[in-house]
Amino acid sequence: MNAPAHMVASFVSAAPLGDAAAWDAYVAQHCGASPFHSRLWCEAISHATGHRCHLVTSRDAAGALTGLLPLHHVRSRIFGEALVASGFAVGGGILADDPAVARMLAEGAADIAKSLGVPSVELRGAPLPGGADWYREEGVYAGFARDLAGDDEAELLAIPRKQRAEVRKALAGNLRVTSGRDGAERRDHYRVYAESVRNLGTPVFPRALFDDVLDAFGDDAEILTVRDGDRPVASVLSLYWRGAVMPYWGGGTFEARRLRANELMYFALMRRARERGCTRFDFGRSKLGTGPFAYKKNWGFEPEPLVYARWLAPGERPRDTNPNSARYRLQVDLWKKLPLWAANRLGPLIARGLG
Q: Rounded CA gap, 246 and 243, in Å?
């Protein structure tokens, strides 16, 4: 790398990762940081999945961090391998003080991929590097976020009329809501989430992934569950970050739609977030043209196009991890028919390779 004279590049690949205090401090002070840049996230992902994290950093002459880029080395016999920033995240990517540092970190990511023999680097956040070896990926995902209203009634009025009517019906039902981080909440969340993704035809992540993220983030991660009596029917694991709530891993059982449990779940999460002092609701990303994309628009969220970047070694093709891809259509249809016990046993072995 041809770095400016005042910059020094370094690569760290160990657990725990590098200078923990410096990493934490840099993320804490950077206005563009997301939870997916944090040491907490990166170490939790590595611990839960076994994917090693390589930290590309830039430092000034005094040794202070001026940029960092965490990369998980994701390996899969089915999906191939890549350096992913960040693993199992909807964001991450380069975090830098200025464009010159950002360019150097991008070059460093490509260099470490070459040294490891990894065919690609995937960046899931801005700033996006330029250069002939980097490809922009547009028109696949959109993000959804908006400010929270001041109270329940104002929140209802912020939801378009048709969806608002569904939420009011859910509020008038006999469902109840619980929240927490204890063993019972974790167990019930995983059961609901596992059934939800099986019904969609996709493999479930290892339970250790959820446990490690909850343990790492402490009070900044929480489960909210909707129950029909004592039976959990919808559940979501959310992250809290800089005044925003991020419903991250959520789903519902077959019964959830009839009971309008998902409507209650997200509305209750908005209420819970206000109680915790949050002012923003980050509904996450969805693929264009999918049911989740339309669902979030129905709640009054406007899609914001997301642009990612990928570096590819000469002659290599990008990984295909999209369950909507034509190459996986048969597998998705078959997965929906698996008994839940089988999907839960096989799913983590496959899903940990998605990254």
A: 10
